[in-house]
Amino acid sequence: MRSHLLSSSLAGAVATSRERSLTRYRMFAARDPRVLIGLEPKYDWCFADLLHLMSQRCGVSADPKDTSGHDVIDPDRTMVALDAFADRLATVAATGAPVLLGTGHPHRLLGFYAALAAGLSAAGCDVLTPAQGRSVDITTRFGVRTYNLDYVRGVALMREPGARKAGSEPGAHTHSPLPVRVVLAAAADGAGPLPALVVGDHGWVCGAGQLGIEAIGLADSDDPALFVGEAEGRVSVAVPLDDTVRSDYYRPLTRYVLNRACLSQ
Fold first, then answer.
1. Which domain of life does the UniProt lineage start with (predicted)?
2. CA atoms in the 13 A half-sphere facing the CB of 214
3. Under DSSP, is residue 215 helix (H, G, I), strand (E, B) or coil?
4. Residue 170: per-residue pLDDT
5. What residue segments make up the domains of the chain, in order of their start?
6. In whole angstroms, what is the distance from residue 256 CA to residue 238 CA?
């Protein structure tokens, strides 16, 4: 697994640029909601503190003078987090508790989460799908756009209106916590039980963790919110890896996680 992480650039030198990561650390320190993605930090995280945290959790350079080139994620830290991620899935599967899975990266990560959904379902967990078709207004760099909540193989994602009919895109890329808030509100209003665990990325993890729902997920080196959430106790596990490589590169991770969690493939 470690060898695959390096050969696929899931870890090691990743595509995320050092400049982008440092910019997003500064945005987080300034509490820019685009980078907080639903998390309301308990503490004041200055840039230096964030850089130190990301060095500890991901393995990025702790030197603020290192300002160019590719970011680096330590594969050993990824392996430790993957094991913790799988162990949380195993614990939930053993109890048959309800789960929610959602992604803001459906182009890359839908297959990974869908396999987890299938494994958890086979173990007796209720894979929740509340608020199907609900419209959500999300602020993007192009202004406020309306998306529809959809579920594909048990995984929540956002689509532009009419996209499902066209069948051209698996879903929209979003970091927003609004979708998970809509889903959890619908569940609380009687559309189903609340999940015991939310599995996903970006706003799905931080938005759920901020509301007191246990959450675990994947995060790139330019997504400090999940690692701050983990440090502050709102996110149970944040797995550091590149979240935008080819979708088939995540298949070995799928097998590894399912095997460790003793879930059906």
1. Bacteria
2. 13
3. strand
4. 79
5. 2-260
6. 17
